[in-house]
Amino acid sequence: MVTSLTPEEARRIILRAQGFLGSDARRGGVPATLRRLGAVQLDTISVLARSHELVAYARLGAVGRQAVERAYWSGGAFEYWCHAACILPIEDWPLYSFRRRAFRERRYRWHEVPPVVDKVLEQVRESGQVTTTDLGGAKNGGPWWDWSDVKIAVEWLLDIGEVVCVRRVGWRRVYEPAERAVPAELLAQDLSDQECVARLARVAGRALGVATRADLVDFIRVKGPHAAMLDEALASGAAGLTPVHVAGWPARRSGGGSGGSDASGGPANAWADPAALDGEPRGRHRTTLLSPFDSLVWDRARTERVFGFNHRLEAYVPKDKRVHGYFAMPVLAGGRLVGRVDPARDGATLVAHHVSVEPGPGMRKRVESVAEALWSAAEWVGCTEVRAERVTPPALASPLREALATHPA
After folding, report:
1. Which fold has domain 322-406?
2. pTM score > 0.90 for this model?
3. Contact 158, 176 (CB under 8 A)
4. Which of 389, 248, 224, 220 is nearest to 307 (CA)?
5. Domain locations in the chain?
6. Which of 16, 30, 106, 344 is 20 to 30 Å from the Cα of 160, by its Cα?
7. Of 143, 147, 140, 299, residue with least CA distance to 210
8. What is the pLDDT of residues 270-305, one digit of tens each?
9. Measured distance CA(229)–CA(212) in Å, rounded
10. Do 123 and 135 touch, CB atoms closer than 8 A?
């Protein structure tokens, strides 16, 4: 029999799995948060802070930014391709063997692999930790995608697992030979593609709490034969996830999992971490700004399904066509996405260029939550003032500024 969940139950399970409900998520700090999430996306955009720093802050509160960086890059993590370029727990190194093999077989990704690749690998092995600058430079002098042969070579070596990104300095990757960066017992593991995909599906299911097949595909970015392996792992139980039916979620279209029905007759349309189904999620909700690249909201379709919140990153949208702003950050409060803030810094002032509050019950409370989230973020980045410029709807401008003024600085 397939477990039946209401949308509210699924949402609360998701919030707990993601570390936004209850106090357990704060235990273990940043390293435990990384293991809980399975993947923390990296991105070049930095407004209040880098996205991977914002992910830790959103769950843990005012952890020092340097402490966050040290926790990520203290030997317990590596950077590789999951949902996107992500920080990943080092113990998951063997699970990405399938992707490293696929890159090796293609010998191509964005560029043809140049003849200098063996020489570059020798340089990395001789030098230890190096950047592309140390190897001779990343660019040929043209646009950003006009990579030098050295850059192409070392990135391909990263793709196939000969070198590992162990940290970033000034946003440049620092490369180290895999035999030095990865514990020997992990390097020695030789998993089949099927084993890799099944175990990564379990990682994704645990991190997401409740997920559709599309959610799992988006998390680990598989297609073709590897997507078929995901379906097989779901259907056979090898992924270790429980088929569930979430009322109102779309029907399962194809592939994976049980074809059974729940007690009310609904077919399975999602999968859940079995541990997440044990007991009702309880505890205090976090009130915080979220990076648009946070795994709670990085999938636009899932965010709309779970929260009824239509959000997209507008950083690459022409300025005159933006609705919410360059780096509009969703505001999480009471387990709901109650608004958006497009932030910036002006000296010691956190500036909210645009604040938009979602319609719904308890608008006054929503405004107070936005003010709380703004002050919390301001204190974290060392700002002593908060200023809101444009507010949508305009009628909430005065209540928001009042809430900001009365909030203890």
Report:
1. Aminopeptidase (3.40.630)
2. yes
3. no
4. 248
5. 1-253+262-295, 322-406
6. 30
7. 299
8. 999 999 998 888 888 999 999 999 999 999 999 999
9. 16
10. yes
